[in-house]
Amino acid sequence: GAVVSQHPSRVICKSGTSVKIECRSLDFQATTMFWYRQFPKKSLMLMATSNEGSKATYEQGVEKDKFLINHASLTLSTLTVTSAHPEDSSFYICSAKRGEAFFGQGTRLTVV
Amino acid sequence: AQSVTQLGSHVSVSEGALVLLRCNYSSSVPPYLFWYVQYPNQGLQLLLKYTTGATLVKGINGFEAEFKKSETSFHLTKPSAHMSDAAEYFCAVGGNDYKLSFGAGTTVTVRA
């Protein structure tokens, strides 16, 4: 089956630093990847749509300069949280689309 | 625009009893509808989905859901709950682009 892998699964970073999260489609090529954010005990919110070779499309209210998305190849998209603050602490989940969408296992980001 | 309403943030059932999770949606295009399960600190696992065709959809682990266009509903059921069904369940709606809008989630607890 289609496997989507996120790395790291868990990361703790200091306030003010940047952290990169990778989303890889392991056995298929994904023209489109999506990034979601899940607050504690809350639903998932779509942050942005990432298309290979073009700029990401951000949802309303999502700061594109803070959440940098790069879709460098058909199997890799990265989300970089820049100048992280404690309020950025969250669970970030990606999905990769080829025909249908497949979810990664998520990344727990804690900013201290 | 698309949205999902999950009725009941928490459902408690006895082992062996019927599980019923309610989901209503709104969509300006023919909807694709999904149910996902999430275990603590993990990503999303697809239980089942409706895209087109048969309105009664069978998924994994004995779950099924019925798409009722007239009621804009996609309720999830399982005839007999198992302890392993304790988890968070999300209903989601999207189009064939797989940009998903999620409901707030329903926490299922199973009593022995």
Overall 3D shape of chain A: globular
**Which percent band covers the strand fraction of chain B?**
over 45%
Distance between the termini of chain A: 37 Å
- Oligomer classification: heterodimer
Rg of chain B, please? 13 Å
Alpha plus pi helix count of chain A: 0
Task: Tell me the structural class of chain A.
Answer: mainly beta
Radius of gyration of chain A: 13 Å
List the secondary-structure elements of chain B in sequence, H or E: EEEEEEEEEEE
Sheet with most strands of chain B? 6 strands, mixed
How many strand elements of chain A?
A: 11
What integer is the average pLDDT of chain A? 93
Termini of chain B, distance in Å?
Answer: 41 Å
> Which structural class do you get from the secondary structure elements of chain B?
mainly beta
Helix content of chain A: under 10%
Number of helices in the DSSP assignment of chain B: 0
Task: Give me the secondary-structure topology.
The complex is a heterodimer of chains A (112) and B (112).
Chain A: E1 4-7, E2 10-13, E3 19-25, E4 32-38, E5 44-51, E6 57-58, E7 67-73, E8 76-81, E9 90-98, E10 100-103, E11 107-111
Parallel strand pairs in A: 2-11
Antiparallel strand pairs in A: 1-3, 3-8, 4-5, 4-9, 5-6, 7-8, 9-10, 9-11
Chain B: E1 2-7, E2 10-14, E3 19-27, E4 32-38, E5 44-50, E6 56-58, E7 64-68, E8 73-78, E9 87-94, E10 101-102, E11 106-111
Parallel strand pairs in B: 2-11
Antiparallel strand pairs in B: 1-3, 3-8, 4-5, 4-9, 6-7, 7-8, 9-10, 9-11
